[in-house]
Amino acid sequence: MAPSLIAGGAGILLLAGMYTPVTGMLVAVAELWMSFSHPAGDAEPFVLLAVLGIALAMLGPGAWSVDARLFGRKRIDFRDR
Fold this sequence. Notes:
There is one protein chain. By secondary structure, this protein is mostly helical. The chain has one domain (about 1-70). About 70% of the residues lie in helices and about 0% in strands. It has helices spanning about 1-15, 20-35, 45-60, 65-70. Helix 1 (about 1-15) runs antiparallel to helix 2. It is elongated and about 50 Å long. The termini are far apart. The mean pLDDT is about 85.
């Protein structure tokens, strides 16, 4: 029951856009934990959610998230050579 509560709480933080890199990795760890604790045939949804959590952690918060309001929006600008 603990991984489900952790994933649910982290999912709520992700929806709000708070601490996106940290909560994305927390979702990924909780979902991988649940995929290894369930029978082998039921692991696909958990692995998919873990991959989505990792992707959100690497992408970071969006423009309208709480993180963007608190810490400023991070932008990547490519320079011409």
